[in-house]
Structure formats: C-alpha cells, structure tokens
Write a structure and sequence with these properties.
Number of helices: 3
Distance between the termini: 99 Å
Strand content: over 45%
Shape: elongated
Length: 385
C-alpha cells in the first residue's frame, strides 16, 4: 500500500512537470526570438550609423553665438560609406521656448486617503502638469532631392539662414528653456532617416540709451504700536536711486532715509539684487510661476537711529548676468532691488521694513548718466502697513 502511494506521487509529479514543460518551452522560445530581434535591430542601427555620417560646420558667428538679425551660415557634410538610395537631404533651423512644471492640485488636496494623511505619501495623480510652448522661428531648406541611388563618397552642402530681429536670447532654467537648433536629415525610402542636430546660442544686446530711464524713489511707511489698533507713530523708509538702469560692472548707489520720532535701533541694512524669472503656461489653463534668485547682496551693520531719523548710503556692484528680457511670452527675465531694514524694537509686530524698486539690466551703458541725477526723480506711490 505504501509502495503504491509512492508510485502515485511520482506519477502525479511527473505529470505536473510534463504539463508545465510546454509553457516553459514557449517562454524560452519567445525570449530567444526577442533577443535575436533586438540584436538584429542593434546590428542594423550600427550598420546604418556607420553607413551615413552627418556633420554641421558653422562658418559664421563667434563660437556658435549669434545675435538677432545676423545670418547663420555653414556647411552640411554627408559621408556615405556605400551606395544607398536617398530621397532627399533637408535642413531645418528653428527656435522654441518651453515652460513646464507640476504643482499639487489644491482642489483635490482635501480628498486624501488615510495612508496619505498618516504617512504623508504623495499622489502623482493629484499633481497638475502645466505646459507652455512658443515657436520663435522655423526655416526649412531642401539641400538635395534625388530620389535615386547615391554612390559612396563625401558631399558638402552650403546653407544660410537669416535670424529674425525679435527673437529672445537663449536661456536654460529650472522650469523652462529657450533653445535654437539646426537639424539635418537624410531621408531614405522605406528606411529610417538619419538625423543630426546641433544647438547654437542667441545673445541680445540691450542698449540702455534706448530705454526709458529716470531717477527713481520709493517709500514705505509702517505703523508703530504695541497692538494693531493702538498706533503711536509711523516709521518711514525712503530709497532713492540715481537711475533705474544698470549694466554689469556698474555700482548701484542707494540713498536710504529713515524717519521716526522714536529712538529705534537698526540691527542691519540689507541691499539685494534679485533676478525674477517668470514662466507662463497655457495648458491645462493659464498659470504663472515666478522664480526668485539672489544675484548679489550686501549686508551693513546697524546703528542706533536718533530721534527724527537717519540717512545712509549703500553701494552694490552689479555682476555679470543676463539682461532684462521681455521678448518671449513663455519666459521673461526682470530684476528688482530690495532694501530691507531689520529693526530692534518691541513697538512693531513685524520688525522688517522693505522697499522694492524694479530696475533694468542692460549690456550697453548710458552715454551720460550724470544728466539723469540732475533731473527731478519720479516717486513711487507710498505704501502703509
């Protein structure tokens, strides 16, 4: 009886193994076929890449950098290692701007499950992806149209493409970019096309003599009191600049005036130049995202402000940076100067007084900046807090 049970078990085990054997065979067969197909594709791509070689050589511009209105000229070098059939060879020069980022969906933030609430896990489905794209230029040129067999050898095709005047400068940011590309394509009938791309840079000159510049003055007023409803006076902060336009290397001379009837100690005076990059998305709905980056900063030691007020001068040198750019609807670059006072007093709920002044950063300085300092300054509307 015992021997019979052992024989039955062996028979069942053999039957199970034999039943699983065809599935394992077909699985191994499928893996083998896929591996052979992939290896064949790799060999085809290697042979195809070795058959056609493309190179783009720019004969104009300085180190691949151009300015709006210039002409991008160069040569496309095509080398064929064997005779192949070619439909045509074309060249495209284009520039695009892209802004993309994702944000949590505020509307669905309250509909979190228990696991997300307790363990603070993220839900990708609750994020909204914003996207914006803009095309600044597109030019296509047919270099060669044969639709026949081309013998092995090297071929050179020249090209020239004028750049529009209103295109923005190249830019690479965290949430977007502005890029310009040259794309050469060798098209073959019923075959994969061979593509070669090369990027080039666009720089823009911003002449401050063509901008509306003027001396500028901004004021900020704070109420002094132990409680918001018990005001015992006001503190007035005034910042004046000789001009609102500067170039890298110049000194921003800031004239700071503080008026107050109380003896208040100023802990520190901070002058900051901030670059504001504005990204604009169009889908799924219009959305704007602003990225602030500190370009340079100067922190001065504070003083005991006498009763009545104090006057101070601060200087900040502008480093190299991108000029102000408003030529793109997707990505804009602007600058602002902030002057912040940190006050040591118990009469203020917020011990900071901040004044913000928009400035223009260019590449060509004013011809005579002394004339602007003698003019009457334009005063910004004062704000009270």
């Amino acid at each position: 009886m015992l021997m019979l049970c052992s024989a039955e078990r062996r028979t069942q085990t053999t039957w199970r193994q034999s039943s699983q054997h065809p599935r394992a065979f077909y699985l191994r067969r499928s893996v083998y076929i896929l591996g052979c197909f992939r290896a064949q594709c790799i060999r085809y791509e290697l042979s195809f890449s070795m058959t056609i070689k493309i190179e783009i050589v720019l004969t104009s511009g300085s180190d691949g950098t151009f300015y709006p209105g210039q002409e991008v000229s160069g040569e496309v070098l095509v080398v064929l290692t064997k005779t192949i059939k070619v439909s045509r060879i074309k060249l495209a020069v284009y520039g695009i701007g892209v802004a993309e980022w994702s944000e949590p969906n505020v509307e669905n933030a309250r509909f979190l499950n228990l696991e997300q609430f307790l363990f603070q896990t993220s839900n990708d489905a609750s994020n909204v992806a914003y996207f914006g794209k803009e095309r600044y230029m597109y030019s296509e040129l047919i270099l060669c149209k044969v639709n026949d067999f081309v013998p092995a050898g090297g071929y050179t095709y020249g090209f020239a493409c004028p750049l529009p005047e209103n295109i923005p400068a190249s830019f690479e940011g965290t949430d977007g970019y502005i890029r310009y590309t040259i794309l050469a394509t060798v098209e073959r009938p019923w075959k994969q096309s061979k593509i070669f791309t090369q990027n080039f840079q666009i720089s823009r000159h911003l002449d401050l003599n063509n901008e509306s510049l003027f001396p500028i003055k901004a004021e900020h007023t704070k109420s002094i009191g132990c409680w918001p409803c018990l005001s015992t006076g006001h503190l007035s902060l005034s910042v004046q600049l000789p001009s609102n336009g500067f170039v890298p290397g110049q000194i921003i001379s800031t004239h700071i005036q503080v008026h107050c009837r109380r003896n208040i100690k100023i802990r520190s005076v901070t002058t900051v130049l901030i670059q504001r990059t504005i990204y604009n998305a169009r889908t799924p709905k219009p959305r704007q995202r602003i990225e602030n980056q500190v370009v340079c900063k100067n922190v001065s030691a504070g003083i005991r402000m006498p009763e009545g007020g104090a006057v101070a001068e601060d200087q900040l040198q502008v480093p190299w940076m991108l000029p102000t750019s408003c030529n793109s609807k997707i990505i804009k670059i602007c600058y602002e100067l902030k002057v912040a006072l940190e006050l040591d007093t118990c009469f203020l709920q917020d011990p900071h007084a901040i004044v913000t002044i928009p400035v223009v950063i260019g590449t060509v300085a004013e011809r005579d900046a002394s004339e602007l300092s003698e003019c009457e300054s334009i005063q910004l509307w004062p704000s009270k807090t």
